[in-house]
Write a structure and sequence with these properties.
Strand order of the largest sheet: 1-2-3-4
Distance between the termini: 61 Å
Largest sheet: 4 strands, mixed
Structural class: alpha/beta
Shape: globular
Helix content: 40-55%
Radius of gyration: 19 Å
Order of helices and strands: HEHEHEEHH
Number of helices: 5
Length: 174
């Protein structure tokens, strides 16, 4: 009996290990959690806002595969927001390897700076002008009212809708 239990445990362990490998992600096997998609270091979001934003992020990732993350920080400490965002998107390894469809929203509170960093595989959908319009027309007005969570939610929701409506362009390089 003990030997059969050990065999069953071994088989179950191997089965679970195989099931957890998602071929769509390439060599990344990390599951999507709020802790690896929302980094609210400036403490701008309530737990409910984090949950709402995370729902949009996971829904998009489940349906299309594209990955979004949000980082809020107090200050850039003299680093440019472009440089900071590029470093973070690379560090987080956002986007699937073949599609390069990651996107990062960065907000630096004290610097009054924000950026949407777009992976190559989303650039036909979220062009620089579109990203600038989202920050200028959706995020900035809400931020000036102190509604940071709503501004970030609106941005993620709009980006999600654009990607869903143009899913045939995901992964296509400009």
């Amino acid at each position: 009996k003990t030997f059969m239990k050990r065999i069953n445990v071994l088989l179950l362990t191997c089965f679970l290990g195989l099931c957890s490998c998602n071929g769509e992600k390439g060599d990344k096997f990390e599951s999507t959690t709020k802790e690896n998609r929302i980094f609210d270091n400036a403490d701008l979001l309530t737990p409910t806002q984090e949950d709402s934003i995370f729902y949009l992020i996971t829904d998009l990732e489940r349906e299309i595969g594209s990955q979004i993350a949000v980082i809020t920080i107090d200050t850039l400490n003299g680093v440019g927001i472009n440089e900071y965002s590029i470093g973070e998107i690379e560090k987080l390894r956002l986007g699937r390897d073949m599609q390069k469809d990651g996107l990062l929203i960065t907000v630096a509170l004290m610097d009054k700076s924000m950026r949407i960093e777009v992976g190559y595989g989303l650039e036909l959908i979220i062009k620089d002008e579109i990203a600038a319009r989202i920050t200028r027309n959706l995020m900035a007005p809400k931020f000036s009212e102190g509604k940071f969570g709503q501004g970030i939610y609106d941005a993620v929701d709009t980006i999600k809708l654009l990607i869903e409506r143009n899913k045939g362009l995901v992964g296509k390089m400009p």
